[in-house]
Specification:
381 residues; alpha+beta; five-stranded mixed β-sheet; globular
Length: 381
């Protein structure tokens, strides 16, 4: 049952981002389909918080308010870097099963807690299979062992409430963040944060391969390029900070803890369905599964449509999403239709007009104008 809480679309994205390892972002959160939370790339976000991934940093961009279109397609049309092609990476035996043990309970809890927003990102029938497959290709590259992943899985399986999920997205768990990083030193090439000893991989805009960067702690200087923030921290005003707690100041550049929303410039309980909200607010104020109606200024539940149904901004002012892993393709007025996602190997358009994400089937993204899983698409060494 969906609660009045605020984990937010960003939180959802971080899970996907971590798994698809898109390109830029630097806030750690949630679970990655690998040993714990991480963040990466164009996070669709309508709230003051963020989604599951292991603890790592990938660089730039973060949450904003309103509808995000065509985000999360890291590296479209970018270069594969200076490294040449190498033999495909082969995960260790049991990697898929270990990743499945992470994602199956994680998705169950996300769908329970996030309602239509969780369904939009994780509702595809093959979501667990695709996320586990991509996870196996990504998170073990840096030396993570099956045993270490299974310790993280135990933490995930033990979570039974939305509050526990919120806490995980904000700070992770000991087992899921202790051993996920690799041996690559600062300056070494990287595909994902998991290869870097610092847990921070900078990938420039429109590129696909990156460089391991230093990771700064809470209160330390950052710039989202040369020095990223460590897991679960965001670079705000040049300093790394955790998401802000109840009553603390917030705006479109700062983030509230999961379960909270930025309401009137302060982190507060999100506005419940049926209550007044400000459709022009710089931050997202409504509870998960709802959106501030553009015409009435009321937090309305998001309707979820099937194939061919209406989505995006509807004529009555509500925001609609899609079910079953479908994508909401928008027109110039942000009205949309629920369509099948573009399959792996098929041509895609960078920054296609898709609500909150790319046109590719989750967790794939658009690399060199073709939909692909990050683990299958890149060779940077």
């Amino acid at each position: 049952m969906t609660r009045t809480r605020r984990l937010g679309l960003a939180a959802i994205a971080v899970a996907i981002a971590a798994c698809s390892e898109d390109v830029t972002v630097e806030e750690g959160s949630g679970g990655s389909g690998g040993a714990g939370p991480t963040s990466t790339s164009g996070v669709p976000s309508t709230s003051g918080s963020s989604t599951p991934a292991p603890a790592a940093s990938t660089s730039a961009g973060e949450q904003g308010s309103g509808v995000v279109v065509g985000q999360g397609g890291g590296g479209e049309g970018g270069s594969s870097g200076e490294g040449g092609a190498i033999d495909p990476y082969v995960p260790p035996e049991g990697a898929y099963e270990a990743c499945e043990g992470y994602w199956a309970p994680m998705i169950d809890l996300i769908l329970e807690c996030l309602g239509p927003t969780g369904e939009y990102f994780y509702g595809a029938p093959d979501a667990v299979d695709r996320l586990a497959d991509n996870c196996a290709q990504v998170v073990f590259r840096g030396g993570l062992t099956i045993e270490e992943q299974e310790l993280c899985n135990a933490d995930i399986a033990a979570m039974s409430s939305c509050d526990e999920l919120d806490a995980y997205f904000d700070r992770g768990s000991e087992a899921c963040t202790a051993t996920i990083f690799g041996d690559a030193e600062i300056g070494a090439p990287c595909v994902t944060p998991y290869e870097c000893s610092s847990g921070a991989c900078y990938v420039a805009p429109n590129a696909t391969c990156g460089t391991c960067r230093p990771a700064a702690g809470e209160g330390e200087a950052c710039d989202d390029e040369d020095t990223l923030c460590a897991s679960y921290l965001s670079c705000v005003g040049g300093l790394c900070e955790y998401r802000r707690g109840l009553g603390e100041d917030c705006d479109g550049e700062t983030f509230c803890e999961s379960g909270l929303a930025c309401v009137g410039g302060a982190c507060d309980e999100p506005i419940a369905a049926g209550e007044p909200c400000d459709p022009q607010a710089a931050t997202y104020e409504c509870a998960d599964g709802t959106y501030c109606n553009l015409l009435t200024g009321i937090c309305d539940p998001m309707p979820a449509a099937t194939l061919g149904g209406d989505c995006g901004f509807l004529d009555d002012g509500r925001l609609g999403v899609c079910t079953d892993g479908l994508r909401c393709r928008l027109d110039a007025q942000y009205h949309g239709e629920c369509v099948e996602p573009t399959a792996d190997g098929d041509a895609c358009a960078p920054n296609a007009p898709i609500l909150f994400t790319t046109e590719c089937a989750m967790p794939s993204t658009c690399f060199d104008f073709e939909c692909a899983l990050r683990g299958d698409a890149l060779s940077c060494f």
